[in-house]
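Encode chain A's predicted structure.
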Amino acid sequence: MGPLECFLFDVNTVLVDFDVKTKKCHWISKSEDWGLKKRLGNISDDLFRDAQLLLGSSFLPTFPILNQDNPTKRSDIREALALLNGAGQSVPQLCQQYRNDPNVVQLQYSDRYKKAVMTIRHHVISSVEQKTRPLDPDHAPSDVHEFVGRQLPDELYFYIQQGIMGTRVPNWLTSDEIVLDLPGGCADSDTYRRLMREQLNPLRAQSLSLLSTALHRYHQQRIVTLKMWYDNDPADEQIILRDHQSIKSQISGWKIHEADFPTAISSQQVCQSLRRHCYPLTDPSPSPQNEHSMLSALKALQDASFVPKTTSKPSNSVLRTDNEITYNVLWRFLQLRGFANEKHELTSWGVALEAAISSLDSADKMEEYVFVAIEMLRMGLVNGKDMTNIPGGAEHGSGK
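Encoded structure for chain A:
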């Protein structure tokens, strides 16, 4: 099941709907006798691909002429085919016909189309040997990195495939840009602009620095540009990674083995928490009491007998158990976000976070929400100012 964009690749059938109640599903086929290509006049694969690209996708924006007359109406593939047929079934020739249109010129549509085609033709795949490479590497051009991005270590792609980490920060690093759009239903206010451009940028820089520290030095010298939805100035704010202090040295002291953990931390708690997070549908068992792993990590730093063990020189042995990996990651994260200091003690914000999570009912799943709320308090975003003027906020009463 997926978007129709799958047809751009070697996919013949896409499942578009599945009704659990009726046990029926609906799908669309590209190449069957009753498929889309046949219904559109038995067109070729390349023509079908080009028409689909003109309609807009993650690889290429919609060709401006298609929605010029009615921007609110989405064009269909027959309209795209009509444009292509009038230009000899060639997108570059179509761009040449509209070379004086300012929107086509601004988008540099012909160049972006060529990159999109090459991206599809040599898209990145993961082999059965867990090697990540472009499709058909023997015929891929030498500048393949210009349209599919720079390659990262196979280990990192494995983490992404297993759901251990997301793709957002690696994409920032390989593309050298952070493109921020205004989410639907969000007011375009000065407060939101300041949050996205100024207040969250140190977190982005910290995330990029943390990732690049574990990669080749080439990535540690990158300059990542921030592009906002309201500002077309090419001199947008930049994150210059070489100007940021290495994060690795700040958190290298956290290498605590399970033998030194406080007795309050139970291995069963973390394993059950991780299993329920990764496989929520297959693990319907009720939550154990005091399951909060972040709360356990915070409480451990209030243990006077435990903190001295964390500041001793780390051993050379690796972290092996679920517990060791989970809690060391949590403690490093708490220090990076300022909830613990370099002496591995809770800061005032760490004490506040521990008190807030401790107030939850043991069966709640609210740790993440409480953490975000505390972060918003630190940024001055939870203050009741002008709340009645924010779409989606309170519509009655005052801002007090």
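The chain has a mean pLDDT of 82.
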